[in-house]
Each structure stands twice: as structure tokens, then as C-alpha cells.
Amino acid sequence: MMSFDFVGKHAVVTGASRGIGEAIARQLDAAGARVALVARSADRLEAIAADLAHDPLVIPADLSEHSAVEHISTSVLDAFGGLDILINNAAVERNQPASKVTGEAIDETLFVNLRQTFMLCSAFAKPLFASRGSIVNVTSTAATGAGGTQGAYAASKGGLNTLTKNLANEWAPKGVRVNAVAPGLVDTEMWEPTFDKLGEDAVRERFVKSVPLGRWGTADEIADVACFLASDQATYVTGQVLRVDGGMTNL
Ligand code: NAP
Fold this sequence. Notes:
- This protein has 251 residues and is α/β, with parallel strands linked by helices.
- It has a single domain, classed as NAD(P)-binding Rossmann-like Domain (Rossmann fold), CATH 3.40.50.
- It has 9 helices and 7 strands; from the N terminus they run βαβαβαβααβαβαααβ.
- The chain has helices at 19-30, 42-51, 68-80, 103-123, 125-131, 151-171, 192-198, 200-208, 219-230; strands at residues 10-14, 34-39, 57-60, 85-88, 134-138, 177-183, 241-244.
- It has a 7-stranded parallel β-sheet with strand order 3-2-1-4-5-6-7, with helices on both faces.
- α1 links the parallel β1 and β2.
- The structure holds NADP nicotinamide-adenine-dinucleotide phosphate.
- NADP nicotinamide-adenine-dinucleotide phosphate (NAP) binds next to α1.
- The site of NADP nicotinamide-adenine-dinucleotide phosphate (NAP) has 27 residues, from α1.
């Protein structure tokens, strides 16, 4: 784990109830930040918060609902009075062959992964301008579109890469940096439906063949890079999508 200094900073992490979001929240807290943990699973958020050192805020919220954005921003600003770091990590992945995809799955995926991320950036614009803060979006190497059976997810992440670059330019004059981390294969619960469908060992072996480093990544390895991008070690970095994938997309 890298060490950064986030003492006195206020951060929001969406999708903080497990996996990569939990790792980012834990690392930000360990480096001194006060973190607002957002996800639907209130019990999990409370259990993680109980482990954190810097008076975390738990905000149960379902980003598939329009009202979640105002609920999150109001709760955060009431408690923190401002914001330095916004980590947009929550996402849904609903793999479906394109010939069978449903409009409902497309809508949910684009809504949660892209639309609500954009709305959260917008809702926190003023406090981020005031703090000359930083946004880190968690996208995916799937944004290249090379995977298959994940059209809506890939499109949402491609859109998020584009949004990252657009916002970086728009808000650079305000001193706000906007970057993304794009994980490759990371060992989290996101893979459980695929493991259940195709067999865990078979999936692990098949996918790892495409990784030059020869292994799956860990949530902490993604969190390291997200924290770097959010930190004062990256003050001249904006508009970047940093792939953290063991070389998988090193084409
Ligand atoms: P995960 O274990 O499935 O975690 C997803 C998180 O998003 C959970 O905390 C979940 O919390 C939250 N979430 C999902 N839907 C939500 C909703 N409607 N409202 C609020 N929160 C919601 O996945 P992960 O692997 O940690 O993924 C984190 C990020 O990394 C995602 O953006 C994902 O696309 C990206 N990524 C992961 C991989 C990988 O291999 N794991 C690869 C590339 C990119 P609740 O269920 O409690 O709401």
C-alpha cells in the first residue's frame, strides 16, 4: 500500500460497501481523510465505518433512483461543509448477449454508471471549485469494447472515459482535476455471477491468460492508483485514464 497524506480532507466514495470502493475508502481513511461511504447495503457500510478512524459518514443510497444524487450531496455537505475528493466507483455490470439485451438492463447500466456519475460531479461542482479538489472515476478496460456480451457496460465505461476528459478540460480553470482509473481483472464480488455461470476455476484460468503479469489484480492495487490520482502527488495530472491491468491492454 502506498502512503499519501489526506489529513483534513473530505472524500466521498460511491460503491464503498465492498471490493474496490471499500479498498479506496479504507486507504483514504488510513491516510487521514474523513470519508462518506455510499452504497445500497447499509449493514456493510456500517461494518466498514466501524473500522475507520476518522469519523466516517454512512450514506445508504440507491444510485438507480434519481433522488439519490440530491440525498448524497445534501448529506455530505451538511456533515462536511465542503468536499475535496469525489470517487465515482459504484457500477452495475449485467452481461447479456446483444441479441437478448433488454432495454431495462441498458437503462440501468447507463443510468447508474454514467448518468448518475455525471450528476454527482455536477452536484459537487461548487464545493470542489472552492477546495480546488479532485475527482477520480473508476472506469474499466472494458471501455475499449473488446470484450463482448457487455455492450451496455462497455458503453457506459467508454462514456465515462470521455466524460472524464471533457470535465477535466472544463474544470481545469477552476483548479479541479478529473482523472480515471481503468481496472482490468480484479478479484472482487463483481465476478461472482460469471463464476456461478461458467465455473470459477475455468474463468480464472481462461482470463488470466490475457494478463502479461500472469495474475488477477487486487482491490488494493486499484485503490493505490485511485488514491495517487486524488492526492497532492498528482497535482499536474488531469484528464487521464490510467489503466491498471497487469499489461492486459498494453497493445
Ligand atoms: P463490486 O464488488 O460489484 O462492487 C460494486 C459496488 O457498487 C458495490 O459497493 C455496490 O454496493 C455498488 N453499487 C452497485 N449498484 C449500486 C447502486 N444502484 N447504488 C449504489 N451503489 C451501487 O465491484 P468492484 O469490482 O469492486 O467494482 C468497482 C468498480 O470497478 C466498478 O466501477 C467496476 O465497473 C470497476 N471495475 C471492476 C473490475 C473487476 O474486475 N472487478 C474491472 C474493471 C472495472 P451495493 O450493492 O451495496 O449497493
